[in-house]
């Protein structure tokens, strides 16, 4: 299935780039900012309209808030890894087990709504792929470029990469067993996760609160890419959920 292939490929590609270009911290940060602009647009233009198109969706906002809170809890495990905070901590501060659990749960939940997406290359999937690249880049840089990394550490590192790569496909597999009527609730939770991650990246203050034109430009580029996809994507499926 093309969706599973793309999900795994986005992680492997990101890790590969991180392993070889991981020392370029600015590149990782710029990738994150670009993906945040893309993600917040997907969230507001695709995910939320799909959530709120459902009849009796007035209480779905609670699930969006639940997604935000869930991501805050996961970040206690990952120490803000999802928005590039790995360099703020020594490697000992991030327990690989906690990091693994946090990233796995995060990616697993994102995969659940993919089971009921009617288009294989949906904007929601592209949002996840776009978001996977910078996270995998940082993961690759963290796992394979650590100074203190003991010899022979590539084996557990490969295991972490494999688990992260399979998390969303496994979530998607589980999603097939849920009632399709629950789709808006899962989308609402993931919408909250997306909203939290992208807004933290976008609104993180710059040094001395100076205007960072590069950052603004990257966010606009990410937004523009998502809007372009929005224009070319067929939105008939929104009306199907009742």
From TrEMBL:
Main location: membrane
Keywords for the protein's UniProt record, in alphabetical order: Membrane, Transmembrane, Transmembrane helix
Gene Ontology cellular-component annotations: membrane
Pfam families from the UniProt entry: Zip (PF02535)
Location(s), subcellular: Membrane
Membrane protein topology class: Multi-pass membrane protein
Entry's transmembrane regions: 6-22, 31-48, 60-81, 93-112, 124-145, 157-178, 184-203, 215-233
GO function terms (MF aspect): zinc ion transmembrane transporter activity
Name the record gives this protein: ZIP Zinc transporter
């Amino acid at each position: 299935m093309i969706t599973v292939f793309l999900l795994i490929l986005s992680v492997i590609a990101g890790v590969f780039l991180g392993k070889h270009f991981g020392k370029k911290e600015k590149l990782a940060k710029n990738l994150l900012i670009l993906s945040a602009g893309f993600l917040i647009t997907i969230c507001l233009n695709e995910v939320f309209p799909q959530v709120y198109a459902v009849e009796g969706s007035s209480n779905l906002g609670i699930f969006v808030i639940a997604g935000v809170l869930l991501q805050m809890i996961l970040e206690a495990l990952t120490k803000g890894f999802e928005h590039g905070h790995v360099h703020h901590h020594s490697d000992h501060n991030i327990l690989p087990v906690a990091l693994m659990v946090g990233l796995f749960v995060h990616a697993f939940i994102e995969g659940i709504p993919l089971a009921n997406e009617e288009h294989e290359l949906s904007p929601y999937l592209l949002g996840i792929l776009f978001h996977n690249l910078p996270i995998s880049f940082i993961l690759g840089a963290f796992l394979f470029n650590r100074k203190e990394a003991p010899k022979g550490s590539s084996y557990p590192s490969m295991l972490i990469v494999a688990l992260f790569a399979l998390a969303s496909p496994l979530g998607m597999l589980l999603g097939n067993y849920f009632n399709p009527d629950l789709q808006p609730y899962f989308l609402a939770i993931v919408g909250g996760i997306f909203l939290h991650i992208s807004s933290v990246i976008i609104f993180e203050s710059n040094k001395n609160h100076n205007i960072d034109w590069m950052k603004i430009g990257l966010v606009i580029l990410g937004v523009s890419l998502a809007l372009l996809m929005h224009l070319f994507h067929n939105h008939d499926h929104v009306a199907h959920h009742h």
